[in-house]
Amino acid sequence: MSRAFLVRPSISVAPALSWSCKIAAFLVLLSLLLPSATLAQATTGKVQGRVTDSATGDPIAGALVRVDGTTLANITNAQGFYFINEVLPGLQNIRAEVLGYRGEALEGQRILAGQTFTSNFELLQAAVELEALMVVG
User: Fold this and answer.
1) For residues 18 and 12, what is the distance between their CA atoms, to the nearest angstrom?
2) Residues 24-64: pLDDT tens digits?
3) Is residue 49 part of a domain?
4) Of 37, 81, 90, nearest to 59 (Cα)?
5) Which of 2, 72, 78, 131 is placed for a possible disulfide with 67 were both Cys, Cβ 3.0 to 4.6 Å?
6) pTM of the model
7) How many whole angstroms separate alpha carbon 77 and alpha carbon 79?
8) In this model, does residue 14 exceed pLDDT 60?
9) Can you give the residue range of the structural domain that contains 118?
10) β-sheet bridge partners, residue 92
11) Which of 57, 58, 56, 76 lies closest to 66 in space, CA to CA?
């Protein structure tokens, strides 16, 4: 007695399914690995500008510029420029101060998400009174 075997041609859908699954898994992994800073930039704004001497127009290096009520701040560079990232949108008070000058505040500055706001400061020189030191020796 002979046995006959029916041979069917094999059709494999596994490679196509496997390839599409690999692409989907890669896209999911990629979306999970995106830096959160990219998302933060879309929901926050940036403040930048320059701090100068009001009498001479010279840049003031080392001035502290900060957003009131937050921990956001930066120091001006040698050309008097500064920038502060990740500022929450809305009305913000921006302040600049440095020893030897009268500090200045710009109140109610409207910060918009995804945009850069420019705040320039012109500081007046001011005499600074320091505490007396007693030298014993």
Assistant:
1) 11
2) 666 666 666 665 555 544 699 999 999 999 999 999 999 99
3) yes
4) 81
5) 72
6) 0.65
7) 5
8) no
9) 41-125
10) 109
11) 76
* CATH for 51: 2.60.40.1120
Task: Report the domain count for the chain.
Answer: 1
Confidence (pLDDT) at 8 = 59
List the structure tokens of 71.
């921990």
DSSP alpha helices (H): ranges in the chain?
14-33, 36-43
- 3 in a structural domain: no
Comparing 107 with 136, the larger pLDDT belongs to 107
Task: Write the CB contacts of 77 (distance below 8 Å, at least 6 apart in sequence).
Answer: 61
Q: Which residues is 75 bridged to in the sheet? A: 64
Residue holding tokens 């706001």? 117
Per-residue burial over 42-65, b = 16 or more CB atoms within 10 Å of its CB, e = otherwise:
eebbbbbbbbbbeeeeebbeebbb
The predicted model gives 82-88 an average pLDDT of: 97
Cα separation, 126 vs 103, whole angstroms? 9
